[in-house]
Amino acid sequence: MHLCQLIVISIFLVSSSSVRLMADEPAFERIFDGQSLRGWSGEAELWSVQDGAITGVTTDDAPLEYNKFLIWDGEVENFHLRAKVRLVGKSNSGIQYRSVHLKDAGEYVVGGYQCDIHPQPENNGMLYHERGRGIVAKHGQKVIVDEAGDKWVTGTTGPVQKIQLDEWNTYEIIATGNRLIHKLNGSTCAEIIDHHEAGRLLKGLIAFQVHRGPAMQVQAKDIELKRLPAGGVLSLAEAPIPDDAQKVPGRTARPRKKRAQSESK
User: Fold this and answer.
1) pTM of the model
2) C-beta contacts of 128-134 below 8 A and 24+ residues apart
3) N or C terminus: fewer CB in 10 A for the chain?
């Protein structure tokens, strides 16, 4: 066989292998059609579609008693989510994930992990546990939560990014087992390993938030979801807390009973 024939065959085999790998790789799917709220549930007075984007609006004339959410009619475990978001007003919003619909707490109330969308740069893109453990990791932090629920800063993801919230910005969430990564405009802004079995969530809902307080408008578009293989929970032995980690003062651990209920839903 001539050398040129061997080269052609080699190229063909490599190309075929690459095609198979691409075919096996999970694809992103649009979970918002850009025209309607089909597949989403929320209060009609708060949520609509404007200019091809999910739009949540609150007013000073009708202030909210509590945070409310637009909930996607699906459930996620391990996944990669990305969306373009912009926020107007002196308030904040967030993208809930692996969350629970807390129907007994009020209409369209959700609790769980949240990628915060916030006017304060150190809070924008942070991990906030809505109706749970509060702030878990701020923008720029790498955090490990230990088995007792205490939070340890183990490093930095880099300088805090300052952005214009009223312009379109891309937020991404990558959740694999108990490892969570938040990205803002392509750069990692928070990284967490959650060993706290009583508080962490391994599956649940996706939702967008309108916040009680001053009038606001939040918009989201190009919302895409890629489902990832199950598993990937790291043990404390596999992801230990470094000796030089800094403990975050305070503790807001959720009771084990509530944890069991949330995981069963």
Assistant:
1) 0.86
2) 128/94, 129/199, 129/252, 130/67, 130/94, 130/96, 130/99, 130/209, 131/102, 131/105, 132/199, 132/252, 132/254, 133/196, 133/199, 133/252, 133/253, 133/254, 134/252
3) N
Looking at the predicted structure, is the pLDDT value of residue 9 above 60? no
Inter-residue contact 180 to 80 (CB < 8 Å)? no
DSSP code per residue over the chain:
--HHHHHHHHHHHHHHHHHHHHHHSPPPEESS-SS--TTEE--TTTEEEETTEEEEEE-SSS--SS-EEEEESS-BSSEEEEEEEEEEESS-EEEEEEEEE-GGGSTT-EEEEEEEE-SSTTTTT-EEEETTTEEEE-TTEEEEE-TTS-EEEEEE-SSPP---TTS-EEEEEEEETTEEEEEETTEEEEEEEE--TTT--SSBEEEEEE-SSS-EEEEEEEEEEEE--S--PPPTTTSPPPTT-EEPS---PPPHHHHHHHHT-
Give domain 27-263's CATH architecture. Answer: Sandwich (2.60)
Cβ neighbors of 233 (< 8 A, separation 6 or more) are 177, 178, 202
Q: How many other C-beta atoms can be found within 10 angstroms of the C-beta atom of residue 75?
A: 12
Instruction: List Cα–Cα distances, 73 to 69, 78, 221, 249, in angstroms.
Output: 12, 17, 17, 37
Cα Rg for the chain, rounded, in angstroms? 21
